[in-house]
Amino acid sequence: MSNVLEQIVADKRQEVARRRAQQPLEELKRLASDSPAPRNFFAALTRPNGKLRVIAEIKRASPSAGLIRPDFDPVAIAHAYADNGAAAISCLTDEKYFQGSLDYLAAVKQAVNLPVLRKDFIIDPYQVYESRAAGADAILLIAECLTEPRMLDLLILATELKLTTLIEVHDLESLVQVNDHVGFPHPTYQLLGINNRNLKTMTTDLHHTIDLLPHVQNVNILVSESGIRTHQDIELLAKHNVHRVLVGEHLMRQPDPGVALRQLIGG
Question: Using one digit for the tens of pLDDT, what is the confidence trace for 201-210?
Fold first, then answer.
């Protein structure tokens, strides 16, 4: 892990411990079991095959960019995305580094009919139950943050809770390691994401996805993340049969994120 990622994970362990002290796991499990069934995030991203699917992201800030959107209204942004072609929504819930909140996710889920991904640094089963209780339909698991046994445990638990998992990698080594686990324990609950942002330098390169394609076993579940700013970027990925993208910072910086999304999709 990069130094930045190591610090984020260390802070996340402390955060999970605090949350567990405030709300015991058994109580959280009851809330999760009482929550409505999740929306099908996997289907929203994969059907029909070969058609562009955009996960539009809601985030106020990031470690690399600082404050991105001062006038931050997650519900208004969610409506704008839903009205302009998003297949799903990603909502940042990390508070310290992204100024996110689980309350934002819950509000977004209530406001629109799209499936919603919890974007956070999930390292503990407690957070999986927490995601389900808050209304998430999918969670992000970052390979560089997890040991292989912990990754498998979280995949099994997420599937038991009917949550789709977006397994994110950046390095080739991580991609090779997770290839055997994408689709475990059930193939319609996992997607593979390639993050084009170098976690050591925090720079982005769209060609990173293309460079790793020879090592991707199933391009039909692949999501390219970060560094996508123009319709030409969408077209470049499409030439390589990559039709699913996650776009956040570019949309958040525009005066009207919905119009920006429509232009990104349609050119």
Answer: 778 999 999 9
pLDDT score of 2: 63
- 165, 191 Cβ separation under 8 angstroms: yes
| Domain limits, the chain | 3-266
Q: What is the DSSP string of 173-230?
A: HHHHHHTTTTT-S-GGGEEEEEE-B-TTT--B-THHHHHHGGG-S-GGGEEEES---S
Q: Which class is 3-266 in CATH?
A: alpha beta
Tell me the three state secondary structure of residue 118: strand
Which residues, 6+ apart, have CB-to-CB distance to 230 below 8 Å?
264
Measure the CA–CA gap between 205 and 227, rounded to whole angstroms: 6
**The whole model's pTM is what?**
0.96
List C-alpha distances in Å: 85 to 54, 246, 258, 260. 8, 13, 9, 11
Q: Using an 8 Å Cβ cutoff, are 182 and 174 in contact? A: no
Place of tokens 């015991």: 24
Tell me the angle at which helices 257-266 and 74-83 cross, rounded to the nearest 10 degrees.
30
Neighbours of 205 (CB within 10 A): 14
